[in-house]
Design brief:
The complex is a heterodimer of chains A (about 500) and B (about 110).
Chain A lengths: L3 H14 L15 E4 L16 E4 L3 E15 L2 E8 L7 E4 L4 E8 L25 E3 L21 E7 L7 E6 L6 H5 L5 E5 L7 H4 L2 E8 L25 E2 L2 E2 L2 E5 L3 E8 L6 E4 L4 E7 L2 E9 L1 E4 L4 E7 L4 E7 L2 E3 L2 E3 L2 E9 L37 E11 L7 E5 L11 E4 L3 E8 L5 E5 L4 E6 L2 E2 L5 E2 L1 E4 L4 E7 L5 E7 L2 H5 L3 E7 L1
Parallel strand pairs in A: 2-5, 3-6, 5-10, 11-15, 14-24, 25-28, 27-36
Antiparallel strand pairs in A: 1-2, 3-4, 6-8, 7-9, 9-10, 11-12, 12-13, 15-20, 16-19, 17-18, 17-20, 21-24, 22-23, 25-26, 28-34, 29-33, 29-35, 30-31, 30-32, 30-34, 35-36
Chain B lengths: L8 H13 L3 E2 L9 E2 L6 H4 L18 H12 L7 H9 L4 H12 L3
Antiparallel strand pairs in B: 1-2
Helix pairs in contact in B: 3-4, 3-5
Classes of the chains: A mainly beta (about 500), B mainly alpha (about 110).
């Protein structure tokens, strides 16, 4: 049966593929940066395009950014989304260690409908107040840097200056809004973009030879009548979602027979995990949250929690059409359905639609992968303090759905320092999840090294900034508080949980 | 079908109902022969409303030997079982009284 929804999905895909979607963002000519337009890396007209990119020049990336309620046609129909620079996803930022990122940010959203109501902490509110977080960046959390306590109201502007250390780990990062109370509504709307800091894996010859793709996975939610004004559609974990890849519904991804492509994948969704499969193709993980694994690791399936990134080498042994899928799975006690994310079309190695000069990687690296040198293993004897954090939930009458999510029994309080530590401290944290759903915990500013999950050592000892604590399970990680003093947060990256309390303040002192 | 909302409200709802009514036990469901002790309500979200969990790495309590359950809970309380998911159990059971422990063990063991 042909349904209206089905027709809309078909027409949306066709419209976006034809490039008649939202107008591409126009770059201010005065900005200190270079732009790369959104385009297919293989040059085929209906191939998935990488998002447009903004590159730093001579150590600076200076650009104009804004968030605006933007007309957009989702598979379910036309709506308005709160997104950056009228682009879904936002432009990819490409930087080098030591660069300075300067964003002249403007909140162009309309006034908040609840502006006259008092804000109740841990109850979603004021969906048009915002700020910008640089997820995974090792930068100052103060002032006009990665300061998530800022409240940029509709009509206000703010100049961010984010200075990357010269030894900043290379990898895949991202940016998104982080104003407590409106994070879930804005990210569920699609406000997010990739940020790449170049180096390390990029210098591995087999990876340098490969075509690079950026895949931003999102499942935007429309409001009932245009702009989303309620937390209700976001709240059900098993709500039906239409997953988009770089803003497209079920796009085509071309790859040549025998080819290896390097995919940088970001789960920029607000709540649902994304296990990924591409049956019939070879998948080799080389990095998590941007940081290299010890060696390429072949896998049939891997999972990105909300906020996670992966560097994937994907190899196409034979011509044919394959599916990039999220298989049906259980997210804790929630049963989530299979999602067909994209068609992967493997064409002949000499397909005439692909110009001869286009990169053609064919090899998977077999030896040890290089490390981000600053991230050295943290051994037990280096640890100065151990802490535990219990993740939970409680009933609070009058809160959204009468619910407050908690860490160590308490919901978020912006006035309270939950962790006070000295600069230079090395700590081991154990996260204990007393709920029947996994919680992906993210800590700002300093990444951590995963030690064990449910007591089982992770022999890869990966460096990450977002880790899923299993339902009724535990995670232990170690981290160094280096370079930057100031307050920042650790929180659940299922954003409705963050907005309703699962967040703490970490204050690093001299 | 009611959608999931990131948590299991059933257990909490039972606990609240008991508090409001000032009663010490409640019917878990019609198939139960014994009344569920109030303290058991915190177990249900992970171990299932009848002791048969939806989570794959959480043990079935339905019909387990009560003495084994009692010993296990005490081991979690006292930190003799530790590491990994035992840390979760310690947080859940650390404040239970001896009477609560016995009641929970007996109820789950007797619900087959």
């Amino acid at each position: 049966m042909v349904t209206r929804r089905g027709l809309l999905k078909g027409s949306a895909a066709a419209t976006l593929a034809a490039g008649i979607g939202p107008l591409p963002w126009l770059v201010s000519p005065s900005s200190a940066m270079e732009t790369v337009t959104s385009k297919s890396p293989v040059g085929i007209s209906d191939d998935l395009a990488n998002p447009m990119e903004i590159h730093s020049v001579n150590g600076r990336l200076k650009a104009d950014f804004y968030m605006e309620a933007t007309d957009y046609t989702l598979p379910s129909g036309p709506t308005k989304l709160r997104i950056f620079n009228a682009s879904l996803p936002g432009p990819t930022l490409r930087l080098k260690p030591g660069d300075t990122l300067e964003l002249a940010f403007e909140n162009r959203m309309p006034p908040n409908k609840d502006a006259r109501k008092p804000v109740v902490t841990n109850v979603p509110n004021r969906f048009n107040t915002t700020n910008v977080h640089y997820h995974g960046f090792h930068v100052s959390p103060r002032g006009n840097s990665d300061n998530v306590y800022l409240q940029i109201e509709p009509g206000q502007s703010f100049n961010y200056v984010v200075q990357l250390p010269v030894d900043h780990p290379a990898g895949n990062y991202w940016y998104h809004p982080h104003r407590h109370g409106s994070v879930s509504a804005q990210i569920a709307s699609g406000a997010a973009g990739m940020a790449i800091i170049t180096g390390t894996l990029d210098d591995v010859p087999e990876i340098a030879d490969a075509i690079e793709r950026v895949l931003v996975l999102q499942a935007p939610i429309a409001g009932i009548d245009g702009l989303l004004e309620s937390e209700k559609p976001i709240w059900p974990l098993d709500a039906e979602r239409d997953f988009l890849v770089n803003g497209q519904y079920r796009p085509k991804i071309y790859i040549r027979e025998g080819e290896v492509q390097h995919w940088r994948i970001l789960n920029a969704g607000d709540a649902q995990f994304i296990p990924l499969r591409a049956d019939g193709l070879e998948m080799h993980l080389v990095g998590l949250d941007g940081n290299p694994l010890p060696m390429a690791q072949q896998t049939d399936e891997f999972t990105l929690a909300p906020g996670n990134r992966a560097n994937l080498l994907i190899k196409a042994p034979k011509t044919g059409t394959y599916a990039l899928k999220r298989p049906a799975f259980m997210q804790g006690k929630a049963s989530l359905p299979e999602e067909h994310l994209a068609d992967i079309i493997v064409v002949a190695a000499d397909d005439p639609r692909i110009a001869p000069g286009i990169k053609f990687g064919k090899e998977i690296p077999t030896g040890e992968l290089p490390k981000n040198e600053i991230l050295t293993d943290i051994n037990a004897d280096e640890v100065t303090v151990k802490r535990k954090f219990v993740l939970g939930v409680k009933d609070v009458s009058g809160f959204f759905d009468n619910t407050e999510f908690t860490i160590n029994g308490r919901g978020f309080d912006p006035r309270r320092d939950d962790v006070v530590a000295k600069l230079g401290a090395v700590e081991e944290w154990t996260l204990i999840n007393t709920t029947p759903f996994p919680h992906p915990l993210h800590i700002h500013v300093n990444p951590f090294q995963v030690i064990d999950i449910n007591g089982e050592p992770d022999t890869r000892k990966p460096w990450m900034d977002t880790i899923a604590v299993p339902a009724a399970g535990t995670v232990t990680f170690r981290t160094r508080f280096v370079d930057f003093t100031g307050r920042y947060v650790m929180h659940c990256h299922i954003l409705p949980h963050e907005d309703t309390g699962m967040m703490i303040n970490v204050n690093i002192e001299v | 079908m009611r959608s999931l909302i990131h948590r299991t409200k059933g257990a909490a709802a039972i606990m609240i109902a008991c508090s409001v009514l000032g009663i010490t036990s409640a019917k878990a469901d019609d198939s139960k022969k014994a009344e569920m002790p109030v303290a058991a309500s915190q177990c249900l979200s992970c171990h299932g409303t009848n002791g048969n969990p939806a989570l794959k790495d959480v043990p079935i309590l339905l019909g387990q030997q009560p003495l084994y359950l009692e010993n296990a809970i005490r081991a979690y309380q006292e930190g003799r079982r530790t590491g990994g998911q035992a840390l979760v159990m310690h947080e859940i059971v650390k404040d239970l009284s001896d009477a609560d422990v016995k009641a929970i063990a007996t109820w789950f063991g007797g619900t087959q």
